[in-house]
């Protein structure tokens, strides 16, 4: 779609102002190119979804007391974390009476990621936000409820307890 839009933009500049003169057509084509480049950069930004990496802010979707965490390090020595991977995070926002306080370093399992992930049947799963469920060192969830959809890929990563707490499995 972006390629067809770019080709239409380049054709519009030449077909409308082809016989007027070099100075006016040059100005119009450059403004047309600016509009096309802006559209293409928006398309590329939407398509460029990245890993959960260092300094990524994630939403906490359990009732442990934390609201937002920032990823310090993805475990397993990888560049980034995807669905079902465990990360080390720092709590940035927390409820005043929760189990987890602001500034505490915690472990978390990524349950929603904006980066798409292919499934065995050929479909792809992608979420609107990046979300995490806080767990202890053994992998047991700190909270007792999980809000929002959770992908069934967590079953392969041995996070069955999170799936049992979730209300909706995607």
Characterize this entry briefly.
One of its GO terms (cellular component) is mitochondrial large ribosomal subunit. With 170 residues, the chain is α+β, with helices and mostly antiparallel strands.
Would you mind describing this structure in some detail?
This is 50S ribosomal protein L14. The chain has three helices and nine strands, in the order ααββββββββαβ. With 170 residues, it is an alpha+beta fold. It folds into two domains: 46 residues; 113 residues, Ribosomal protein L14/L23 (Ribosomal Protein L14). β1 and β2 form a beta hairpin. The longest helix is centred in the N-terminal third of the chain and has 26 residues. The N terminus is likely disordered.
Which ranges are low-confidence, i.e. pLDDT below 50, for 5 or more consecutive residues? Answer: 1-29, 42-47
Radius of gyration (CA) equals 23 Å
Taken in chain order, the helices and strands follow as HHEEEEEEEEHE
By DSSP (H or I, 4+ residues per run), the number of helices equals 3
Percent helix, as a range, is 25-40%
Distance between the termini: 28 Å
Content of β-strand: 25-35%
Q: What is the CATH homologous superfamily assignment of the largest domain? A: Ribosomal protein L14/L23
The biggest sheet amounts to: 5 strands, mixed, barrel
Instruction: Summarize model confidence as the mean pLDDT.
Output: 78
Overall SS class: alpha+beta
Shape: globular
Number of strands: 9
Tally of distinct domains = 2
Order of strands in the sheet with most strands: 1-2-3-4-7
CATH class (first level) name of the largest domain: Mainly Beta
CATH architecture of the largest domain: Beta Barrel
CATH topology annotation of the largest domain: Ribosomal Protein L14
């Amino acid at each position: 779609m972006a390629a067809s839009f770019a080709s239409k933009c380049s054709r519009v500049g030449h077909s409308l102002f082809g016989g007027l003169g070099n100075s006016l057509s040059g100005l119009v084509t450059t403004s047309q190119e600016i509009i096309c480049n802006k559209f293409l950069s928006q398309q590329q930004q939407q398509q460029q979804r990245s890993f959960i990496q260092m300094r990524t802010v994630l939403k906490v979707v359990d009732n442990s007391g934390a609201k937002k965490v920032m990823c310090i390090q993805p475990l397993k020595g990888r560049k980034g974390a995807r669905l079902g991977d465990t990360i080390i995070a720092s709590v940035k926002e927390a409820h005043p009476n929760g189990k987890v306080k602001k500034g505490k370093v915690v472990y978390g399992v990524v349950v929603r990621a904006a980066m798409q992930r292919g499934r065995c049947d050929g479909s792809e799963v992608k979420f609107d936000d990046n979300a995490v469920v806080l767990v202890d060192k053994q992998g047991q969830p700190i909270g007792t409820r999980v809000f929002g959809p959770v992908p069934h890929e967590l079953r392969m990563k041995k996070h069955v307890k999170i799936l049992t707490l979730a209300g909706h499995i995607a």
